[in-house]
Amino acid sequence: MKKIISVLLFCTLLMTACAGTVPESSQEVPETQAQTEAEVETETETVPVEKAASIFEGHISNTVISTGNNYMMDAKGGKTFQIYFPVEESGKLEYQFYFSNTVDSTWERGRYSYAGKSGGSYQILNARIWTASSPDTDDNSEPVEITFDGSPEKAVSPDETFWSDAVSIDVPEGKYLVWEWTLDGEDIPCNRMTELAYSYIIGADGAGEYNMDVPCPQLIGTNREVKKKIACFGDSITQGAQTTPYAQNFWVSKVSESLGSDYAVWNIGCGYARASDAALCSNWLERAKSADIVTLAFGTNDLAVGQYGQRSSSSADEIEGWLRTLIQELKNAGCQVILFNLPPFDFDEQTEAVREEVNSRIPGIAEETGCEFFDWNALLENPDEPGKTLYGGHPDDEGCQMIADAFLKQFSALLES
Questions:
Q1: Given CB 3.0 to 4.6 Å as the disulfide criterion, which of 121, 131, 180, 333 pairs with 289?
Q2: Is the CA virtual torsion 213, 217, 223, 226 positive or negative?
Q3: What is the CATH number of domain 225-416?
Q4: 8 Å CB contact between 210 and 197
Q5: What is the crossing angle of helices 316-332 and 349-369, to 10°?
Q6: What DSSP line would sit under 81-122, residue for residue?
Q7: What's the pLDDT at 106?
Q8: Is the alpha carbon torsion for 302, 307, 308, 311 positive or negative?
Q9: Inter-residue contact 124 to 188 (CB < 8 Å)
Q10: What are the residue ranges of helices labelled H in 122-250?
Q11: DSSP assignment of 168-192, as one string?
């Protein structure tokens, strides 16, 4: 009965999510409509919106590894996948895993995988979890079988969302939670990552071959108690790309490490993601809405490659429109939003001019909509060469530590409230 209620509730949430087209420019909004929206935003600042009900109620993320879907892969004939998740809180906990068979964000220009693309029909043949110190040690715990409505197998339909049954497992301090499952099918949504987590395809001989296309649960969920749930919603810089392999030195992980297990940090950043992807108001956004605080960091790929289906960089008006849509959706769900500006990315002169225009607007957007504002551009931009990076387009370990330190200093009161 609980699962039926959850499904019905989720359907209701999706039906009420935005479905209209965002105006390309805020100047196109009629004056009376703009006044009405301003009045609503002003009220939002003084009268907090009650936190919306969520299908994720009672399920807290327990890893900082990104679990969004930004690509697709095939497992025709059956393939076994294995991934090592560092956990935010160790010890014995009840786990339940959530899945979405839809692509969240567009990869490159979307030739093979784009936001909103339906996953294919596939079969889960088996799934299990255990604990281990690393892929190279022999201290694995006994595997715990994962079931779905009591069965070790499950047929998954396009765009289906579903939960596993709950299981308990004790993850000792310093050990990984290892997820392994065997799938059979094509066009399976996955997370394309580069050495953020140990992830393998397991051969017939039991040996693992590194695999960066990782089909995995969208939520490594536990029932632990926390002060705040934080969702980090953005692109590859949020995901953690190009930091030291397997070290969890990206800024989201550093924030989580500093806050400790009293806080849950759910990394839903996806490589190549655009604000236009997130503004489709899909299951990806519903995951963000379940948090108390949402960091919103989009725009780089809207400039670098543009909206899916377009062949040009997105305009400042378009990016502003998508950001405003996301802010309104999150605020309506009762989330506190921290709006990031666009970091430097060594763009050409024309694209850099658009980035600067967007950044000139973002503090005002944050003020108008009752968001907090985080200026990571000031941290990451070379002061001697405006628009150029100090720590790389994907900030390295040093840049990510600087981001985390500044973030925690600026928002300590918000996190404690």
A1: 333
A2: positive
A3: 3.40.50.1110
A4: no
A5: 30
A6: EEEEEE-SS-EEEEEEEEEE-B--S--TTSSS--TTPBPPPE
A7: 98
A8: negative
A9: no
A10: 236-239
A11: EEEE-TT-EEEEEEEEEESSEEEEE
Q: Write out pLDDT tens, residues 47-77.
A: 567 777 789 998 999 999 999 999 999 999 9
C-alpha–C-alpha distance, residues 214 and 83, integer Å: 8
Number of H helices, E strands in the chain: 12, 20
Strand 293-297, strand 336-340: pairing:
parallel
Asked if 81 and 200 touch (Cβ cutoff 8 Å), the reply is: yes
Amino acid at 321: G
As a residue count, the chain comes to: 417
Q: Return d(Cα 228, Cα 309) in angstroms, integer.
A: 37
Residue 289 main-chain phi, psi, to 5 deg: -65, -20
Kindly state the helix (H) or strand (E) to which residue 128 belongs, with its residue range. Answer: strand 122-132
| C-alpha torsion 191→192→195→199, nearest 10 | 50
Instruction: Give the whole-angstrom CA distance, residue 294 versus residue 102.
Output: 22
In whole angstroms, how far apart are CA 110 and each of 93, 273, 283? 39, 11, 19
CA 87/CA 96 separation, integer angstroms: 14
Which tokens hold the place of 266? Answer: 């759910």
pTM of the prediction?
A: 0.88
CB 104 within 8 A of CB 191: no
Asked if residue 141 lies in contact with residue 124, where contact means CB atoms within 8 angstroms, the answer is: no
Name the stretches of the chain with pLDDT < 50. Answer: 1-46
In the block, tokens 């405006």 appear at 386
167 phi and psi angles, rounded to 5 deg:
-140, 155
Contacts of 173 (CB under 8 A, 6+ apart): 90, 91
Which pLDDT value is given to residue 311? 86
SS3 230: strand
> What pLDDT was estimated at residue 6?
40
Strand pairing category for 122-132 and 154-156 = antiparallel
Question: What is the residue extent of each domain of the chain?
Answer: 60-219, 225-416
Residue 146 is predicted with a pLDDT of: 98
> What pLDDT was estimated at residue 48?
61
How many C-beta neighbours within 10 Å does residue 206 have?
A: 7
What is the rounded distance in angstroms from the CA atom of residue 86 to the CA atom of residue 64?
7
pLDDT digits 0-9 by tens, 98-108: 999 999 999 99
